[in-house]
Each structure stands twice: as C-alpha cells, then as structure tokens.
Specification:
The protein has 260 residues and is an alpha+beta fold. The protein has three domains: 6-49, no CATH class; 76-141; 144-259, D-amino Acid Aminotransferase, Chain A, domain 1 (2-Layer Sandwich). Helix content is 27%, strand content 25%. It has helices at 16-32, 67-72, 85-94, 119-123, 127-130, 195-208, 245-259, and strands at 6-9, 37-39, 48-49, 77-80, 99-103, 110-113, 137-141, 145-154, 157-163, 179-180, 190-191, 214-221, 224-231. α1 packs across α7 (245-259). The two termini are 12 Å apart.
Length: 260
C-alpha cells in the first residue's frame, strides 16, 4: 500500500456507538494501509468517513428495481408514485395484508397502513412532499422480520456480517456462533441456528444484484430468510454492528488498488 495516501474524516458526534464504529474502521484502514490512511483536517475533501468520496455510490440505492432484491424479498412488493398509492394499498388490503410504505429517499418517510385505514390517515401533510416527486414509494406486505443480519458486500464478495442489534459494536466481534438477537432493540441474544441459510442467501444475492458493492440486510420471515433492503456502501458509514472491521478495511483497500 506504500506510496499512496488516503484521508479519513472522523465523525463529530456525541453518540458513543457511532464514535466507536468510526474509530474502529479508521484504525483498521490505518493498519491495513501501513499508515497511509490519515485523518482529514480542516475542510479538505476526504476519501473515507464523513463526506468521504470513495465507495459512495449515492445516499440511496434503487434496490426496489433490482431483480435480485425482488426475487429474494419474500413478500409482496410493489412501487408507485403518490397518485397511485391509495389504489395499491387497497389492492393489498383486499388480499388481507396490512401495508408498509416507505419513501425511496433514504430514511425520509415510512408508515404502516393497517386494514381499515386509508393513505390519508397515515400520510397526512406529508402528502405534499410526495405529490410531484419522481421518487417512487415502496408498497409492501407488512411482515414481521426477526433475527436481522447485515452483510457487507464488496466486489460481489460477502466480506463480513453481523447480527443487526443496537447493542453491538465492532468490539463485540466475533459474535459466538449459534446465537442472535430476535429484534434489533433487544439487549440479550438467544439461541438461533439460521445463520448458515442466511449467509448462503447473502452470497446468492451478491452474485445476482446489479451493483457490485452494497450493504444487504436480511431477516427471517417465519423460518425462511429474506431480503429486507439494500443500502449503499461507503467506508465510514454507521451501522457496522459487530462486523469484522479488519476484513472490511482489507477488502476496501484491495478494491481501490485494483480499480483505482
């Protein structure tokens, strides 16, 4: 790695988990690069971390159009613009499904429309944000995901993964095999033997998906693993949970050296 320097802008936050994740990934990149990843200073652009421009496809990933996601999402799933939303919701209700709707803008809006409710009941004044928007709304059968895991894919290879539990950070790696967290907010794990099937699904999706690098969230619908969503990957994001940051750093730098 010698001869090429990169910079990492550390996150300015009071959240202890976010600070820990950020520092752990920076340290892993520093070590894997033989010290050639250095802290960004001032207002200069950075390669990694906050506002880093390496491995940042965008702030969102249009996974709702990706055939790999649609093939493995495990639930009825459609997209529509706002003017078609009520009709789509009614079609789901007619089949006996409560509906989960979500904006294509990352973290912008999500809501549940239970049977007997209308879109207007839950969207309210947010409707004005969607009326003329070209960004689709995702309309999906409401399911109860359990034992969610996050998989980091670089160059179509599943590099590392972790249970998606708020209590976990990279210092908890490795998580013992045979346990997981039923819900992300749970404080304690419980016995679970579904990891092998979930890893196999993650590897299958990594081969099939349109993008070659992403963060894939999987969960269980009953006894079957399914895809929750894709997220764009960039080195310096939060939500690492108890992944192997050393493996992640090595894969990131290897990809940069190969692809520039």
């Amino acid at each position: 790695m010698m001869g090429r320097e990169w910079t990492y802008r550390l996150r300015d936050t009071n959240d202890p988990e976010e600070r820990l994740e950020d520092a752990a990934l920076f340290k892993a990149l520093y070590d894997a690069s033989d010290g050639m990843v250095k802290p960004a200073t001032g207002n200069s652009e950075a390669d990694f971390g906050v506002r880093g421009n390496r491995f940042r496809h965008s702030f969102s990933l249009a996974y709702w159009n990706d055939r790999a996601f649609l093939r493995h999402c495990g639930r009825r799933f459609e997209t529509t613009l706002f003017d078609g939303l009520q009709g789509r919701v009614e079609s789901f209700h007619a089949l006996g499904h409560d509906v989960y709707i979500k904006s294509g803008f990352d973290k912008f809006f999500n809501a549940v429309v239970n049977q007997g409710e209308s879109v207007a009941d839950v969207v309210g004044d947010m409707a004005y944000s969607f009326i003329d928007s070209p960004v689709p709304l995702m309309v999906q059968e409401l399911v109860d995901f359990t034992f969610e895991h996050r998989f980091f894919v670089i160059g179509r290879e599943v590099v590392t993964w972790s249970p998606a539990a708020y209590t976990l950070t990279p210092i908890d790696y490795p998580v013992p095999h045979g346990v997981a967290w039923r819900k992300q907010a749970d404080m304690n794990s419980e016995p679970w033997n579904g990891l092998d099937a979930m890893v196999a699904l993650a590897r299958q999706i990594a081969k099939e998906m349109e993008t070659d690098s992403a963060v894939i969230d999987l969960g269980m619908i009953g006894d079957t693993p399914a895809c929750v969503e894709f997220n764009p990957f960039h080195a310096g994001q939060v939500g690492l949970f108890a992944c192997d940051v050393r493996a992640l750093a090595t894969a990131v730098l290897a990809s940069l050296m190969e692809n520039g």
